[in-house]
TrEMBL record:
Pfam families: Rhomboid (PF01694). It is found in: Membrane. The keyword Hydrolase applies. Its main location: membrane. GO terms for biological process: proteolysis. Gene3D superfamilies: Rhomboid-like (1.20.1540.10). The keyword NAD does not apply. GO terms for molecular function: peptidase activity. This is Rhomboid family intramembrane serine protease. InterPro entries: Peptidase_S54_rhomboid_dom, Rhomboid-like_sf, Rhomboid_protease_S54.
Amino acid sequence: MEKQQDNPFQFTKAVILLPLFFVFTLWLVFWYELQFKHNLSHFGIYPREVYGLKGILFSSFLHGDIEHLANNSVALLVLLPILRYFYKEQSFVVLLFGILFSGLGTWLLGRPSYHIGASGLIYALVSFIFFKGIFTKYYRLVALSFTIVILYGGSVWYMFPNVKEGISWEGHLAGFLVGLALALVLKTPQFSKPIFYDWEKPDFNPELDPFMKNFDEKGNFNPPPKPEEVIREYFNSSMKVVYEFLGGKK
């Protein structure tokens, strides 16, 4: 019985639980701020200041208002299941590094103000899913890349300054670059084409294979003797040939 090739796409509970847990955490933090009237914006990223480094870890879980939180929640509920389903083995690495390095990029590039929100992570996810699908050349992932363009292609404009006030375009740009870098660095061996040798093919005949002919019936390596080389005279004539050199005189 032939062994079937493992399906690289498998639905698991984590496809649903991961985004739900992550988004629930965002809403829990926002509820805490409202319930106890405790503004946590000072845990955001403040660029190029040592005290602003803590925001690299915490800024993705903080949001300024419910509209900001709702928009990011919808995006995460779409992108995180896609990431987990299509890139199961790379999902947690992309999620962790997407948070850390998009935050670090914001800390390096950002304006002197507190930067909060999961937008940097969202741009990292969009960028990774798009570019990785193109790089793998796997037809399903390429189709997924074009779907991402349809859903989030317009968000590319928010990586540039002065497009809309009140947004961290630096965080968007940092997240986009992080996603591209992760798509280049992370390997996806689950999508590589399997290699089949001639002896694995069902119609393989060892008696006709040149290499197998080097073995005898007992399996010993016993290559047949090489045929003797026959030197043939391609030109043979009894006619006398006289060569005369005609040299030019100076």
